[in-house]
Amino acid sequence: MNAPWRARVLGSQLAELLRRPGRLLTTDLALIGATWLTLQPLTSADVAALLAAHGEDVLPEEAAALHRRTEGNPLP
């Protein structure tokens, strides 16, 4: 007997996930107990705080540049 499997899907771009061949459909994800979270983009201040929490000493301008480059996405 095989052990039950679990899948974890983490994506920042749901539309991209749904365009890929072999994708899991949202109903398939619901059947395995997936939970959808709607995340808002980080602000420039959030980026600075996240970097500081990880021991990075950055200038506000550097945090702002990273924010612009990632568009506030914490999962680039």
Which structural class matches the secondary elements? mainly alpha
What sort of overall outline do the alpha carbons produce when their principal axes are compared?
Answer: elongated
Number of domains: 2
Estimate percent helicity.
Answer: 40-55%
Point out poorly predicted stretches: 1-8
DSSP summary: helix tally: 4
Nearest-integer average pLDDT: 76
The helix-strand sequence is HHHH
Number of strands: 0
The Rg value, from CA coordinates, equals 17 Å
Largest sheet: none
Walk me through this protein's architecture.
The chain is mainly α and 76 residues long. It folds into two domains: 7-38, no CATH class; 40-76, no CATH class. Helices cover 43% and strands 0% of the residues. It has helices spanning 14-19, 26-31, 44-53, 60-70. Helix 3 (44-53) crosses helix 4 (60-70).
